[in-house]
Design goal:
Layout: H1 13-33, E1 37-39, H2 52-61, E2 67-69, H3 73-78, H4 83-89
Parallel strand pairs: 1-2
Helix pairs in contact: 1-2
């Protein structure tokens, strides 16, 4: 599942909640169909998931039993994150690299 995009200005709390709801629902549907679902955050313009604080926030809302993570090292670096720390912190969610 691609990175959530936020094209509107304003508070982001509701946007994270909606994105997590979509990811978790996709995870539920994937489980029923026998398909692994994973989020692939990006660092593109208007992404909701850009830096480490964003990763921490969305991963706190996403059920790890339903939705994994497909890290992209380029996007992690572009978001000014510590590569090793980010990969280590969320290693249990990684589906593939």
């Amino acid at each position: 599942v691609g990175s959530a995009t936020s094209v509107s200005e304003g508070p982001r709390d509701d946007k994270f909640a909606i994105a997590a709801e979509v990811y978790n629902r996709a995870g539920e549907l994937g489980r029923k169909a026998g398909v692994d679902i994973a989020v692939h955050p990006s660092s593109h313009h208007n992404t909701l998931l850009f830096d480490r604080a964003d990763y921490d926030r969305i991963f706190a809302l996403i059920d790890p039993s339903l939705v994994g993570w497909v890290p992209d090292t380029g996007h992690i670096l572009r978001g000014h994150e510590d590569m090793i720390d980010t990969l280590t912190t969320y290693r249990d969610r990684i589906r593939y690299i």
